[in-house]
Amino acid sequence: MGRLLLLSLFTLLAAGQAPKVPDIRQSLSFRSPGSPQISPDGRWVAYTVSETDWEDNEFKTQIWVAQADGSERWQLTRGKKSASNPAWSADGKWLAFASERDGKRQVWLISPRGGEAWQLTSDEGGIQGFEWSPDGRRIAFSSTGAETKALKDRKDKYGEYEVVEHDYRPAHLFVVDVPAEVGQKSNAEPVTSGDAFTVQSFRWSPDGSKIAFSAPRDSDLSHSDTADLYVVKLADKSVKKIVSTRGPDTDPVWSPGGESIAYSTADGEEFFFYKNSRIAVVPAEGGEPRVLTAKFDEEPNLLDWSASGIWFGAMQKTHSWVYLLDPKEGTWKRMMGDEHFSVTGASFTHDFKTSAMTGFAPNDFSEVYVSKVEPFAPKAVTDFRAQYREFQLGNREVISWKSRDGAQIEGVLIKPANFQQGRKYPLLVVIHGGPTGVDRPNRSADRTYPVEQFVAKGALVLRPNYRGSAGYGEAFRSLNVRNLGVGDMWDVESGVDYLVKEGLVDPERVGTMGWSQGGYISAFLTTNSTKFKAASVGAGISDWMTYYVNTDIRPFTRQYLKATPWDDPQVYAKTSPITNIKKARTPTLIQHGDGDKRVPLPNAYELYQGLRDQGVETRLVVYKGFGHGINKPKQQRHLMEENYRWFSRWVWGEMNQE
Fold it and tell me: 3-state class of 596 per DSSP?
């Protein structure tokens, strides 16, 4: 019977019948895992499950627990509000998590076997991050706390207003005791105060007497380069700055004995946005830092420090692996992941012999896995891929080509399940953001762009890792410095040319789309290229000058273009899509959130009006109440359906209903 079913499927696919794929609502409804945390003794794994609540129009997360051997799993939290960031107490008796059940984000506690959760904190500002003390008796958290009396008085007298770059509410550290009895209340004690810095990431010392934290001078993203490293002694609340170098110093991690602290650093690099960060170590009392990963050519993500060394994760092209760094020798070795399996998040048992992680193989979905660290043999304890078993999805493969200037570019090519060699397909290019994002050959539920719908309709989809993408080293990430848009266009156009030359693509039916930096590149292609029959620009930059004076992250432009618009207007013009608006001929859909601070809305209106003035078919959709991402399911559904209709019209020639 099984062979007959396989033969029937093969016959249908060979005959060219469109594969069965999820519709847009189904795709938006699929669940996915995250935040895997293994219990200290290795018995259980807590993780989050993202799910869709169409009634409340929200993507929500709840916490689940699985037996580490995969024999059982159960949902731990429920309710109208999300639960996130599960964290185990030292004895594994409790899971702490964050939730807005009382209206503001607070720390809650629950038994891993279930029962009622109880609220530990009642902070007026709502908590940001939190962490258990090593003995499990206390929890530290960061918060802006209650509004000051001065601010309340100002509002009463004058109403709401903001003084730009002055009205900051710094986040500070607090510590709360965990009561012995379930449901008991405990008052939080402030640990840091003042307006000299705002607390970001932090870690307890192994003996629980100190907390190391990173803190910039304020919460303005444009001042992230001011982040330095501090240690506070809980006994007297004395604060000492132990690292102060140019560029951000963040993510402190204590050595097992508490004598040293590892951290992520720009190591004095002025242009740190596209340069490698590095792992350094400094004595806990302060002193001369030692940079350990100067020769590691990617961004190391600090995870933990055990007796064996410092653990970090990193991208390598389209792969992501976990490494172990020797703090004495400054050498590292890969411990988890290989060319056939990527690790996208990892936590460890108390003895660091077992790990829980999210991970995936090519053409597979992300699952929660458990494995011994040595030998590494991950076993899935979840089965999210079961949601897709009735569907025939597109197949992913990593391809490479040379760009116009000789740069080697990789991308993920997605082919229909019924792909036929020798046939020329329409091509849709889907461009990631960042620019330091990266596309990989795993499967996942579609968001923003209905890729599986396009592929089932008979298109190839190319997701290029253009210059500037993560995973390919510092030199590659630097290739679009003072060359934004221009070099990116070379990479995309050469990828199209490569597929045309290979006989896979009909050059008369090619479209491009992308969000954020991907939207910017699509806008640049709209006004500078004749290869595309349609484009979709999501939250894209149209004019770097307009962007620079409006964005919440101004250093991005100053670093990538190495100038302000007042210093070098020519490089701003060269890299702005609007400069060549008179050449635009490509029908363009524009989508943008009206509250976007990262790429503010004037960029959308500028491109829209410029295209209209040239007589180019264009459509602007503004999503009310949204920032840089469209993060609610109903509006996501509309966004995806708009893209499907747009490209069906301009690439397939279908006159569809709007």
Answer: coil
Nearest by Cα to 119 from 171, 60, 182: 182
Q: Please give the DSSP secondary-structure letter assigned to residue 233.
A: E
Residue ranges of the domains in the chain?
A: 120-313+321-334, 392-650
One-letter amino acid identity for 518?
G
Cβ 336 vs Cβ 376: under 8 Å = yes
Q: How far apart, in whole angstroms, are the C-alpha atoms of residue 465 and residue 400?
A: 10
Give the CATH class of 120-313+321-334: mainly beta
Quote the CA–CA distance of 78 and 60 in Å, as a whole number: 10
Domain topology for 392-650:
Rossmann fold (3.40.50)
Task: Convert 346-355 to b/e letters by CB count within 10 Å (16 or more is b).
Answer: bbbbeebebb
Residue with tokens 């607090």: 174
Residue-wise pLDDT for 398-440, tens only, equals 999 999 999 999 999 999 999 999 999 999 999 999 999 999 9
Helix (H, G, I), strand (E, B) or coil at 493: helix
Q: How many CB atoms lie within 10 A of CB 418?
A: 20
First to last CA, the chain: 44
Task: Read off the pLDDT of residues 274-314 as tens digits, 9 standing for 90 and up.
Answer: 999 999 999 999 999 999 999 999 999 999 999 999 999 99
| Nearest-angstrom CA–CA distance, 658 and 654 | 12
